[in-house]
Structures are given as C-alpha cells and as structure tokens.
Amino acid sequence: MLGQIFNAQLIAEAFGAGATVLILGGLGYLFTDRAGVFNITVEGLLLFAAFFAAVGAGELHNSMIGVLCGIAAALVVSIIFFVVSIWLRADIIVVGIAINLLASGTTVFLLNNFFHNEGLYQPAGLHTVPALSIPVLRVLPLLGPTFTNQNLLTYVAWLTVPLAHVLLYRTPLGLRIRSVGENPEAAATVGINVQWTQFVAIMICGLLCGIGGAYLSIGPLGGFNRDMSAGQGWIALAAETLGGATPLGTFLSCVFFGASQGVASNMAAANIGASQFAHSIPYVVTVIGLALAARRVMLRRLGRTHGPGGSQTQPIAATQAADATGMTATGDAGG
After folding, report:
1. Backbone torsion region of residue 181, taken as left when φ is above 0, otherwise alpha when ψ lies between -120 and 50, otherwise beta
2. Bridge partners, residue 151, by sequence
3. What pairing do the DSSP bridges indicate for beta strands 120-121 and 131-132?
C-alpha cells in the first residue's frame, strides 16, 4: 500500500505539477513581503491569470499569447492593488480580500456572458504550453524521470529560484526592496522612493503569478474551471512563511507542499481512505506548516528582544541601502 503512495511519481509530482504554481506564487509573494507589503492577492492573481491565459490561448490559438494574456491580466490587477492599497492608503487586507472575491465572481460572470457556461472554458482548439524533454537529464537514474519531460513553465518556475536569489541579494534593487521592508522610514532618509520600490515588488509578484496562473489553465491540462486555483495562492503564502522568506526556503517548502498534494492524488487514485480525507491532506499540512512557522517567528522575536544574558537588543536596520542610491550610510541590510 505504501508503494502506491510513495513512489517515483510522487517525486515528479512534488517538483513538477504539484509545486510549479506554488513556487511562482510563493516567490511572487516573497518580493512583496520583503518590501513590507502584505499582499494576499496571490489567489486572485492566479485565478485572473488562469482565465485570461485560457481565453487568449483558445481564441487566438497560440499558447505563448495565452501566457502573455495571463501575465497582462495579473499585472493590471496588481496595479489596481497598488493604487488602492499603497497610493490611496486603503486597508491592505480588505483590498486583498476584495480582489480575491472579485476574481472568483468576475471570472464566472465573464464565462457566463461570453461563453454561456458558468463553470468551464475548454474549446476544442485550445493550445497548451508544451513539455520539454532534456536528453542529458533523461539518462540519470531516479532524477531523469523527475526533471525531464516537464512542462516549459515548470522549468521557468525552477529558474526563478536562483534568479530571485540574485535579484534580492546581489542587486541594488534587491537591496532597496529589503531595506524598505525592514525599515521604510530609514530607507526614505537615504533617498529611496519607498512607494516606487513597493510598486516594483508588486509588479514582480504580478509577473510571477501571471505565469503561475497560465500554468493552471494552459499547462499540462488545457482549460479553465471555475475557482480552479483552489486555494493554491494561500498555500503559496504559507510556503513563503514556512521557508523563512528566502528563495531557497520558499522553494523547498513548495516542494514539500507539492509532495503533500502528490500523496493526496496517489491515495485517491489507489482508493486508499475516503476521498474527502485524501483531498484535505494539502490543507492540513498547510495549517501544520503555518503553526511551525509561527512558533519559529515567536522564538526569534523573543531572542531579539532579550538577547544573550537577558539584555534587550535592537533589530538591525537596513541602512546599507544608501550604497544603492549613491549616498553614504552605516549598518547592515542583512541577507
């Protein structure tokens, strides 16, 4: 029975289909989190992008155009989020919830009014993003079946992990993002435009979520289903938190959550346990992961407050951002 659950297919699911959307959504949220923006719109961005990617690919008969349509939709929604929550200073949580609800309602409305179907868009000529087979990886034992013959957008998701690390820790933009998230007042005093930096971080999130949403609807499975994001945006937020707000940690957390989805799929395929229990496994794992992350953050805060020997310590300010603006500053931005 265990062989039906824990097998090579589970590894492929953990790194591939199960983790692709989580990696892209989690890394997108990572940039806004490090910029001090509590962006909970990832779920809505994935859903908007999935819908417009499917419609773009289906109506224009080109999967790459579909991906671009999904990215464009996520970027437009991200701009709306920035204007209302950051520029107009509305409550950011309320705005995020509103966008998530708007995504669910708007996609159903558009399906009903333009395609006369409230739950499904799957035209006969829908083009999907192709899979790639890498000959060099194919001959490797165990790793070959896992890392080859994956969807093109899955490789894009894997590539974003080192790119996110380089951008966040090896570029002036990344230094500004981390500085703004750590101490926006200090960042402003050294000449950093806080709102512009947060706007860029939100746009990066929109870009990555646009790709993730496109994978949902025109990746391995072609077509848009009502509410097809199915909570993956929220799981991506949990993965970023569990991963310690770092690209590598987020990636590993996404693989972990992707494996939990693979376990659920294998249990359902093998008729092991009730189907409702199997499908609830990823969400149960998410709750447990969030609890562990919350405990870790609490212990870290206690350590910062009291420090060694019980003396109170101060958090490290991100004043190193002055180097990115051509000014002189002291301190360490961390990272």
Report:
1. alpha
2. 131
3. unpaired
Strands annotated E in the chain: 120-121, 131-132, 150-151, 224-225
AA letter at 98: A
The whole-model pTM stands at 0.83
Give the amino acid at 45: L
Helix, coil or strand: residue 105: helix
| Range scoring the smallest mean pLDDT among 16-25, 73-82, 139-148 | 139-148
Q: Under a CB-based contact definition with an 8 Å cutoff, are residues 332 and 315 in contact?
A: no
In a domain, 80, yes or no: yes
- Non-local (6+) Cβ contacts of 88 within 8 A are none
Q: Tell me whether residue 334 is in a domain.
A: no
Let me know the angle formed at the C-alpha of 199 by 198 and 204, rounded to the nearest 5 degrees: 95
The tens digit of pLDDT for each residue in 73-96 reads 999 999 999 999 999 999 999 999
Residue 5 is assigned to a structural domain of this protein: no
d(CA 9, CA 263): 10
- Residues 6 or more apart from 167 whose CB is under 8 A from it? 173, 174
- Kindly state the helix (H) or strand (E) to which residue 19 belongs, with its residue range: none
Q: What's residue 47's pLDDT?
A: 96
Instruction: Judge whether residue 270 has pLDDT over 70.
Output: no
Contact present, 223 and 122 (Cβ < 8 Å): yes
Give the residue with greater pLDDT, 257 vs 246.
246
How many structural domains compose the chain?
1
Residue 137, token pair as written in the block: 């990886």
Better-predicted residue by pLDDT, 133 or 74: 74
- Say which CATH number the domain at 321 has: 1.10.3470
